[in-house]
Design goal:
With 210 residues, the chain is mainly α. It is 46% helix and 10% strand.
Length: 210
């Protein structure tokens, strides 16, 4: 039985349940490490999001990887409707993750899949700005990112944005998903950069992930 068929059965069951007769208010599903193994596959994440959106279901999950947010588009986040809590174990981050493979590894293409998934939910202009950042890093590896003033100039030139506010608003989702990072240099300038390996930056710049 396919995943869509299984999901359809689950939905129909909950649609016909009478809460008073069943003697329950909600089913609570607990999932540990939802960002590991097969669960991080796009199909399973969509299915879990659909289940979480049912009125009779409450989902409690944990994630381990700092980049776990890249698994979810804005639409999935709306369906999950997460209330997030950060729980520290006081262990080194590398120690916590040593038992599992990386969430996104270029070696097994998971990073590329995760990035492509996030880009699907973005507008053409948002993707265009990310493409500009990727191309700048390829052309100027010594810069380790692009300054806001330079990004502004390139965005105006390519008709992607016409103010710093537009750029910041357009990059909001990319920063949330850790696609683009931001730092301040020694002169107080905003620098935007990405931490992807060279082959993936090249695909971004060539617009091959849409």
């Amino acid at each position: 039985m396919s995943l869509p068929d299984q999901l359809d059965i689950i939905k129909r069951v909950f649609c016909h349940i009478n809460e008073e007769e069943a003697g329950f208010r909600r089913y609570t599903i607990v999932i540990h490490s939802m960002d590991t193994a097969g669960l991080k596959h796009e199909d399973y994440q969509h299915m879990l999001a659909e289940i979480a959106s049912l009125s009779g279901v409450r989902l409690i999950v944990s994630v381990d990887n700092i980049k776990a947010g890249m698994l979810w588009s804005e639409q999935l986040i709306d369906k999950f409707n997460f209330m997030c809590l950060q729980v520290d174990t006081l262990q080194d981050y590398d120690t916590e993750l040593e038992y599992q493979s990386p969430l996104f590894s270029f070696k097994n293409d998971n990073e590329e899949v995760g990035l492509a998934f996030v880009l699907k939910s973005m507008t053409q202009n948002q993707r265009g700005i990310i493409k500009v950042i990727a191309q700048h890093q390829l052309d100027n590896p010594q810069d380790k990112g692009i300054a806001m003033r330079d990004l502004m100039s390139k965005c105006v030139e390519n008709m992607l944005a016409y103010s710093q506010k537009q750029i910041k608003d357009s990059l909001h989702e990319a920063r949330d998903h850790k696609v683009v990072h931001e730092r301040t240099d020694e002169n107080g300038h905003q620098i935007f950069f990405m931490t992807y390996p060279l082959p993936l930056l090249e695909k971004l710049a060539a617009d091959e992930l849409n």
